[in-house]
Amino acid sequence: MWVAIALMMTTVIASCTLDSETSEPVLVICPVDSDSILTNEDNELKYISLTRTEQELVNNNNEFAFNLFREMIKSQTREQSEIVSPISITYALGMLNNGAAGDTQKQINKVLGFGEAGIDGINDFCKKMLTEAPSLDKLTKVMIANTIYMNQGFELKKDFISKAKTFYDAEPETRNFADGKTREVINKWGNDHTEGMIPEVLNEDDFDPTSVSYLLNAIYFKGAWANKFDKENTKDETFKGYSTNKQVPMMHQEHEFNYTENELCQALCLPYGNNAYRMTILLPKEGKTINEVLKTLTAETWQSYQWMGSAIVDVKLPRLESQSEIQLEKMMSTLGMPNAFDSNLADFSNFCNIPTYIGMMKQVAKIKLNEEGTEAAAITVIGMKNSAIPSEPQHVSFYATRPFLYVISEQSTGAIFFIGKYVGD
After folding, report:
1. pTM
2. Residue 80: what are its φ and ψ, rounded to 5°?
3. Do residues 243 and 401 lie in contact, with contact meaning Cβ atoms separated by under 8 Å?
4. What is the pLDDT of residues 289-306, one digit of tens each?
5. How many whole angstroms separate alpha carbon 341 and alpha carbon 417?
């Protein structure tokens, strides 16, 4: 028997507010000169207020994001562009973890970075993002949705249903999975909640009519650049990939942006809309590699990239479209939650009326980036088997004509929604 959880994705970042518990200031990173970027007086920049404890949890979850991406790169058999949504996995496992118990739940809590805060910390974080993230920027569309499809003959525990509704706004629906229509219904839900970016959540090999349940979380992001690229300035230029060089449409503009650099890379922040969301691009310097930069990325070093000064930046960035389909079972087990994938050790006794374990877990993600902005979405699927401060502006060049990393994040929390790399394929 199978239970599957499908999830789709979106995006996150940090400002200074007071901790409601301690009255101490909490770090929330504000953009440089944001007022000069805003063009819509009614589109006020908003923040998600976090206590110090909540901010620490977000930082820990960002640590998970970087660890996950490193594991994903290790698993590659060849150099290729990739995109993954860590927060999508957080939603998927967070919802499922309400059905876990014992060491299985503790391992999931630790891997996601919530440790002692446990499942309550994950639930509260997901509820806050679900409620507040979509309304931060009128020029950026963010959709987060959850649902549960249950196979006839199986029953979810009442407490699990209550938490799924309260924290994930997920309403269970019972269907006959052998009716020949359920996969189509699930795929349509996924397609609708990613604006057509992910038309197929489950292919024929993924879908099992004897599954116990499919749980889905959808996250969709579409943001317009605060400073759009002029299409007339886009020219074909050579992108120097790791294995081959190719001609790509290279967008071009010069503007004042948040910028910093170190011995490994240049870092550029491209904001969307009213600055509530932004893309941070990490471009390895000549002679350096993505892996060298990635090795240094932690929650702490990520914060350092948020404290950027401003500079007049001559930007070249390729127009791109990238999609990934990633098997996550081995990666998540390696990161520290092996019990969930072991039929003898998994404890999901609070999930439904039969014993289960995770038998399949993958994520499908897609991104489109052009002169207007960025559109991104992803779906994470979990299948469960029955087991019993600025300085004076400088002028710099930022030419992304070689492989680079990118992170899409939300302004007020620092939480990472998407992380990817582009190598020109």
Report:
1. 0.86
2. -155, 155
3. no
4. 999 999 999 988 888 887
5. 25
- Cα–Cα distance between 310 and 312 in angstroms, integer? 7
Cα–Cα distance, 183 to 189 (Å, whole number):
10
25: tokens are 């200031």
Q: Rounded distance, CA 306 to CA 248, Å?
A: 29
Buried b (16+ CB within 10 A) or exposed e, 156-168: bbeebbebbeebb
For residue 381, count CB atoms less than 10 angstroms from its CB and return exposed for 0-12, middle for 13-18, buried for 19 or more: buried
Q: How many Å apart are CA 77 and CA 321, to the nearest integer?
A: 21
109 torsion bin: left (phi>0), alpha (psi -120 to 50), beta (else) = alpha
Angle at which helices 118-132 and 52-74 cross, to 10°: 90
What DSSP assignment string belongs to 206-274?
Answer: T--TTEEEEEEEEEEEEEEBSSPPPGGG-EEEEEE-SS-EEEEEEEEEEEEEEEEE-SSEEEEEEEETT
In this prediction, residue 169 carries a pLDDT of: 93
Q: Which two tokens stand for residue 71?
A: 């594991």
